[in-house]
Amino acid sequence: MDLSVGNFKKTDYSQIDPDVSNVEPRGRQRGVTASWYPPPYSPLRPKFSYVRKVLWDFYTKERKNGKDPVEAYASFVEDKKKLKKYKSARGKVGWKRVSCDESTELVAAAQIYTIKKYGADHMDNFSPIPAMNSLSFISRHRYNNLLGGIYHNYYEWYHDLSHVSSFMFGDQTENCASSDWYLGTYWIVAGANINMTRIADCHFVSEAKYLGSKIVVLSSNYSDVTKYANILVPLALGSDSAFLMTCIHAIRKEFYVDK
User: Fold this and answer.
1) Fold that domain 178-257 belongs to in CATH
2) How many angstroms separate the CA atoms of 72 and 109, rounded?
């Protein structure tokens, strides 16, 4: 089999320009070292429903007293002492194994309580990334949508890409493909350690450097990507925004205003 770029067609990312390095092969290289976790055969994978015991004890006590699920849930979330007690147990041991039916009832009671007291728009559905099994992703979003809940953009969790982009354009990201890095002549790498966060794409950095690209890295530490840098700007933690706004001010004033 001829695996050259021109003949190997079974790829997700096609060759756009014969003068640009191929994007393939891509893959989660770190997955090799974590292949045992957390698939079904991992001994650490939870296989049953668990509820924090202090919360479960409050709930089941009220259920035994004859209250329906929503009333039982309300009885302890509206009690400041009980609320503080079960919330302060977070981050500690103390889980109780319950049946799927029991955990489903508790979750449903919490949702109904929230909708009745605060409104359906307080039901916020979040998924860490849409690139997952369509059944698990779409089903839960559809369920929350039918309840009247809202969708939580996963960028709000990661904070690694522009939030406004998806709101304005309807796309996850409005930017160039990683192969375009190869054509960049002047790079500013800020807030990213490409060798660690974009392992499959970082070859474009060294290849662009080979072509003569100038690379500036803004980083508070000597991160992996710094080895490619022509200039390292060792910013103090939290000062990157101020530094970049200063750069923008200098460009606008000296190039556009003064000239």
Assistant:
1) Dimethylsulfoxide Reductase; domain 2 (3.40.228)
2) 8
